[in-house]
Write a structure and sequence with these properties.
The complex is a heterodimer of chains A (482) and B (176).
Chain A: H1 13-41, H2 49-82, H3 87-109, H4 133-165, H5 168-171, H6 174-179, H7 188-219, H8 227-261, H9 269-284, H10 298-328, H11 336-358, H12 361-367, H13 372-396, H14 408-433, H15 448-476
Helix pairs in contact in A: 1-2, 1-13, 1-15, 2-3, 2-4, 2-8, 2-13, 3-4, 4-7, 7-8, 7-9, 8-11, 8-13, 9-10, 10-11, 11-13, 11-14, 13-14, 13-15, 14-15
Chain B: H1 2-29, H2 40-63, E1 77-84, E2 87-90, E3 94-96, E4 100-107, E5 112-117, E6 123-129, E7 135-140, E8 145-151, E9 164-169
Parallel strand pairs in B: 1-4, 3-9
Antiparallel strand pairs in B: 1-2, 4-7, 5-6, 5-8, 8-9
The chains are: A mainly alpha (482), B alpha+beta (176).
Chain lengths: 482, 176
């Protein structure tokens, strides 16, 4: 490995802790917004529909953005162990991200914008009087700012990896995947980070293009993009971006779990092949969001179904399988970090089951845009990406390994969180199977029972998350990890 | 159908949870000298091939009859359903049972989703309504009665109020 950068590799602990503190706080805040929405659907709370849809937009944008932020912080931290990164890039990334957050919050709570985080063209421009064009423009500009932040982040990550490994192909582990060459094989962190860098850069560029078109359309309605093309671009961007957050967060598992099991996570050929196939699958699978857009070419819908299924194989047979093998062969001493990181992979794997089901065209006919959809994605976010992020936070402030304890409060936090998030997501799946549509501010009488039970579970999940965040804040002062 | 999907999903999810729980409890009792056995990669390979073969069978079975077939036939009847903020327009109020009904789903403004529900609230099928496009979906109603249309794609402030209904009747009197 050649190091052409001037600085030596070193994790940027302080800035990463700030990013994780913001992530933890926003996760809890947005979970509370989620509780409000479920309570309103359950008629436990009187919420004006306009405010409900504003909260829904804030919840979606806030959670997706924060999943991205926490994933990026994890990737930046561990990438810093292997390559020399330019430190100020992460500061600019954070600043642009926060600028985007301010614009989005202003658009929603000052301008009344409530078109959902997916800004499905042409809804931002046609609100039926609910918000004005300025609010829509501020929201779209906020997303552009966050997109630019991530683009900068990936350009720097890509530059550093290309520089250190002598080309993108090497960083992706392709000589290992396709040639079986173990010489200079990059560690799992590099293969994962390089893969995410490639697909999320493409995703963000496509997202930026449709955002700019939507922005121009606000003020020049005759400048209209084809609605089907816009939908394809938005779902390509949205799918790739949210998946990138999970694929970045799993780097924490590759780096931290070996500290507990005593077994290094190796870049085997199957590992490199799994990531090479993930690169393709993540980008090619997005038509599974468009299975009820019947004018889509049939081959694209079939591709959506087939790749939905195939996407589960690298996850289940490589990441989850390897973790299980490492756990089985080790005498692991559990603590909060280890528990949450393993939970993250387990939750991600469990969530893939209802996701794959929904990716089947015949199932999607009766499940699409029902609560089945938030059901499956809340499993692999709440019990997957977010659990990994909380696990990373716990590890960051863990201090000395020998002193690390799995306290009663930690155990309580994990079990309350699993019970809350598990029950909450199960109620979504049951509601989906009972044909309850998603994204409805006001629910019918028949649906209220599930909504109310889900609200109770959601409160539990927030309590668990609160324990994790408070524990992180408490640990910030005494930790010295670098 | 939805109940079957739920049960299959729950079984799959429970299986994954059980595998993780087993690994965790096994790990707790493993000795320090425990090594990863040599046949791990063989097991992994079997898992991958097993998943691939299972996937091919399920894919072929689920797509053998194209789920989105909307081909018109001599006895099919077309209905135009247009979504707008926040209403549904249908060019006929009744359709006959037992005949293929082709719904042409359109939109006057933003994206909508036509979800056709039974009176007791079970979603039968759906199709997106999109500006500039006509999405066609075919369905044969086996039972008569009142059916509802709910909006399945978030379309703004009164998305949840975008409901309509139509009747399925026993004979061809549904034809205008």
């Amino acid at each position: 490995m050649s190091m052409t950068s001037t600085a030596a590799p070193s994790p940027q602990t302080g800035a990463v802790k700030v990013a994780m503190l913001i992530s933890g706080a926003v996760f809890v805040l947005m979970m509370l917004v989620g509780v409000l929405m479920r309570a309103a659907q359950g008629d436990l709370l009187d919420l004006d529909p306009a405010l409900f849809y504003q909260l829904m937009t804030a919840h979606g944008a806030g959670m997706v953005g924060t999943a991205g932020l926490s994933g990026a912080a994890i990737m930046w931290y561990f990438l810093g162990r292997h390559v020399a990164l330019t430190r100020w890039v992460f500061h600019i990334f954070l600043a642009l991200f926060l600028l985007g957050v301010v614009l989005i919050l202003g658009a929603i709570f000052l301008g009344g914008f409530g078109a959902g985080w997916t800004f499905l063209f042409p809804l931002p421009a046609i609100s039926g009087g609910a918000w004005d064009l300025g609010a829509a423009a501020a929201f779209l500009l906020g997303l552009v700012s966050i997109g630019v932040a991530f683009l900068l982040f990936y350009l720097e990550a890509g530059r550093a990896m290309i520089s250190a490994y002598g080309g993108l192909g090497n960083a992706l582990g392709w000589p290992l995947a396709f040639g079986g060459s173990t010489e200079n094989a990059p560690p799992p962190t590099i293969i994962a980070a390089a893969t995410v860098t490639v697909f999320n850069t493409l995703g963000i560029v496509v997202g930026a293009a449709v955002l700019v078109v939507s922005l121009i359309n606000l003020y020049l309605p005759e400048f209209a993009v084809d609605a089907l093309l816009a939908k394809n671009m938005i779902f390509f961007f949205g799918h790739v971006f949210i998946n990138a957050s999970i694929y970045m967060a799993v780097i924490a598992v590759y780096e931290v779990v070996p500290e507990y099991t005593g077994r290094p996570w190796k870049s085997s050929r199957i590992f490199a092949l799994a990531w090479a196939s993930t690169l393709l699958f993540v980008m090619a699978v997005y038509p599974h969001h468009l299975l009820q857009d019947l004018v889509m070419p049939g081959w694209m819908l079939i591709m959506g179904q087939v790749i939905s299924y195939l996407s589960g194989i690298p996850l289940l047979a490589v990441t989850a399988f390897s973790l299980i093998v490492y756990l089985k062969g080790s005498d692991i001493r559990w603590d909060l970090a280890a528990g949450l990181l393993v939970l993250g992979v387990a939750g991600w794997s469990v969530g893939s089951v209802p996701a794959i089901m929904d990716g089947m065209i015949s199932v999607n006919k009766v499940m699409h845009n029902t609560q089945w959809v938030p059901g499956h994605f809340h499993i692999y976010l709440l019990l997957g990406e977010v659990a990994m992020a909380f696990g990373f936070m716990a590890w960051l402030v863990r201090g000395d390994v020998a002193q690390s304890r799995f306290t009663t409060l930690d155990r309580l936090g994990i079990w309350v969180y699993i019970a809350g998030a598990g029950g909450f997501t199960l109620m979504f799946l049951i509601s989906g199977a009972l044909s309850v549509p998603r994204r409805w501010a006001v629910h019918m009488e028949d649906w209220l029972t599930q909504d109310r039970i889900a609200t109770g579970f959601a409160v539990l999940a927030v309590l668990g998350a609160l324990i994790f965040v408070l524990r992180f804040v408490g640990g910030l002062g005494r930790s010295s990890k670098a | 159908m939805q109940a079957t999907i739920l049960v299959i999903s729950l079984l799959g999810m429970i299986a994954v949870i059980a595998i993780f729980l087993r690994a965790i409890s096994h790990g707790a009792t493993a000795s320090q000298s425990g090594t990863v056995s040599d046949n791990i990669e063989q097991k992994r390979s079997r898992l991958i091939w097993g998943l691939l073969v299972f996937g091919v069978i399920v894919t072929a079975g689920s797509l053998w009859n194209w789920p989105h077939d909307a081909e018109a036939s001599s006895d099919s009847i077309s209905v135009n359903v247009t979504g707008g903020q926040w209403f549904w327009e249908m060019d006929r109020e009744t359709v006959p049972a037992g005949k293929p009904i082709i719904f042409n789903v359109l939109s006057k403004d933003v994206n909508h989703g036509m979800g056709v529900y039974t009176a007791d609230g079970t979603l039968l099928f759906q199709a997106q309504g999109m500006p500039g496009y006509v999405n066609k979906v075919k369905y044969i109603f086996e039972n008569t009665g009142t059916f509802k249309i709910l909006c399945m794609e978030f379309c703004g402030l009164s998305h949840h109020d975008m409901n309509a209904s139509f009747k399925v009747v026993a004979n061809a009197s549904g034809e205008k």
